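Notes to self after the Tuesday call (sharing in case useful).
The group wants a holo model before anyone commits to mutagenesis around the pocket. I volunteered. Ligand is protoporphyrin IX containing FE. Logging inputs and output together so the record is complete.
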Amino acid sequence: MPGNLEALVKPLVDCEPDALASPWHVFDAIVEQDPPIVYSDSLEAWIVAGRQYVVEILADAKTWSNCSVGSSRKANERFFGLMRELRREPEMAPIVEEFTSIRRDGAVLVTADPPEHVRQRRAFSDLFRPRRIQSMTPAIQAKSDELVARVRPLGCADWVADYSIQLPIAILARNFAVPESDGTKFKRWSDILGGRIGRINITREEIRDLIFSEKEFRNYFTPLLEERRRNPQDDLISDIATAEVDGEPLSDAEKLEACQQFVIAGHETTSSIIANIGRRIARDPDLRDRLAADRSLIPGFVEEVLRLDPPVLGFFRMAKCDTEVAGIKIAEGEYVWVAYAGGNRDPKGCPRSLEFDMTRHPNRHLSFGYGEHACLGAGLARAQAVIATNALVDLPNLALAPDHVDEYSDSYILRGLKSLRIAFDRQPVA
Ligand code: HEM
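Result:
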C-alpha cells in the first residue's frame, strides 16, 4: 500500500479515537485507487472498498471463507497465544479446554461456509418472517414510548444509555420470551463475547472474562433450548430449538451458537444505528422539521443513515484458494477486509454518493451485507430504527447537549457511539 494510505489505515486499525470518529476518508481514499483494493501491513490483510469488488466477494462463498469474519489473522494469533498462556494456569486449564472443545464443534451462520451454512440458513431463514416482525411492532412501539416517557420530563438524556441500548435488548428478550430483566445479562455477555470483533489489543483478562461469560451463556441457554424443544411456543428460542432441515434436526452446538449470534448481532448493531440516527437528527433542526412534516420520509431516511453511517464498517473473508480480485492475485489463506462502508460510498455504485439524500431510490447500500450471509435480522432492525426515528422527531427542540462529545467504542469493525447527550424542551408527565 502506498505509505500515505497506510498512514490513514493504521490509526483506524489501532482504534485511535479520531479515526474511529471519522473513518470515512480511509474508505474514500481506497475507493479512488484503481483498482480500489490495497494491501495494509498494519491489518495484514487486503482492504477492498470498491462496490463492484465488495459485491463480487460477498457473492462468492465458494472462494471466500467466513471462518474469521470479525478478526484479522494478527488478532487471531494474539488471541490463541493468550489462550495458550491461560491454559497453563492450573485452575484455568479445564475451563479453557472445555471452551476450545465447544469451539471445535463447528462453525454456525456468520462464521460457517457451505455446505453447513446453506443447511443452517435454510433452517433459520424464516425466523424473522415479516409476519413476526409485524406482530412485534406494537411491542417495539410500547417499549419506545416507555423509554421516552422516562426522559421527557427531564429535558435531556443520554440517547445511547437511555434508549438505543435499551430498546433492542428489551425486544430481544421479548423475542426469546424470557423476562425483560434478563436483558442485562444479554448485554453483558454480548459486550464481552463480541469484544474481540475489530480489535487487535485484546488482553488476557478480557479473554478470561470471555471464557467465563461463554460458560454462563451456555448454562442459561442450554436448559432453555431443551425446555422449548419439549414445549414449543411462538417465540425465537422455540423456533431455534425445533429447527430442522429435511427432517434432520440441527445439532445442540449449532442451536446454542445461533442463540449467541442472535444475542450479539441482534442488539449491538441495532443500538448503533439508533444512536447514529439520533446524532444526525439532533445536529440538524431542518432535517428534524422535514421529517416531522412528512413522516413518510422516515424509512428512506433510515436507509440513508445506514448507507453513510453503517454500524458494521466491513467484515473479513479468507481466500480458500489462490484467486484474483480486480486482476490482483490473492493467495490461498490471505485475508481481505470487505468494506461495506467503502462500497456504500463508491460513486460508481451510487450517484452523488457522498451526499445525504433520504429520497434516494433505490438505495442499494451494503450495510446489511450481500449474498448468502446477508443479515437475517435486517427487517427487525429496520422496524426498530423507524420507531426510534419517530420518537426523536417527537422531541421538541431536539439538539445535541453542549457537553456532548463524540466517542466511539474500541473496534474498527463495529462502529458505535459510547453516548449521545441530547437536550430538548421538557414535557410534563402525562
Ligand atoms: C442495523 C442493524 C444491523 C446491521 C447493520 C447488521 C449487519 C449485518 C451484516 C453486515 C451481516 C453480514 C455478515 C457477513 O457478510 O458475513 C449480518 C449478518 C447477520 N445478522 Fe445482522 N445486522 C443488524 C441487525 C441484526 C439483527 C437485529 C439480527 C438478529 C436479531 C441480526 C442477525 C444477523 C445474523 C444471524 C447474521 C448472519 C447471517 C449469515 O451469516 O447467514 N442482525 N448482519
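Two things stood out.
Residues 58, 66, 69, 109-110, 121, 261-262, 265-266, 269-270, 273, 311-312, 315, 340, 367-369, 373, 375-377, 380-381 surround protoporphyrin IX containing FE (CB under 6 Å).
The mean pLDDT is 95.
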